[in-house]
Amino acid sequence: MRSLPKLDARLAAAAALVRRGVRCADIGCDHGYLIAWLAASGQIPGGYACDIHKKPLAKAAFTLSEYGVRDRVGLICCDGLMGLQAGEVEDIVIAGMGGETIWGVINAQPWTRDHKLRFILQPMTKADRLRRSLYQNGFALLRETAVVSGDFPYTVMQAAYTGAPPCEVDDAFALCGLLLDDHSPAARRYIAKAVRLVREQYEGLKKAAASHMRLERYEALMKRLEQGGR
To answer: What are the GO MF terms of this UniProt record (predicted)?
Structure first.
């Protein structure tokens, strides 16, 4: 049996959220390890590796050939989802980018507003802005998991378009999402990181003599994050 590409914790968590038997696109595929793993393991029948630069696509082509799935995964040099058409894939992975960039990729194509699609998202930064943007535009988180990679906690989300009216999520959910109800060690580390960030902001506001009302808001947010639950 042919060996599979080795995935780090972030990509392994993303792979676990891809539905079995669907066609998948990996946006910003880099070396192509994720899409190669999905195809070589039999989790998906095929899909697309997409990147805005030709050099990563060349590396992805080598990876796909190495693991015997080059004939099942197309290579597309494009910006975000620009090289894909509606109906070509059912699951879309966007990993390793900032939260605002990820939302920009989704928002740029009107066909992403499709209830059948699933988006597997792994923001490196600004996950709070990504969560807010999703809910402000009719999307929702279906699943979310935390992982630790390189001693840093990250989140991996599965989202879908629901068509729900625009919704403003509260600060705690924006910062930690569904992880608020997750008591795994990785989720606790992710939340602890959020608490440290809020505490740093709180201390800065205290030094700047911010209003009592504003300080109370930060105190309540820290307490809620530490307690968990939405």
So the answer is: tRNA (adenine(22)-N1)-methyltransferase activity
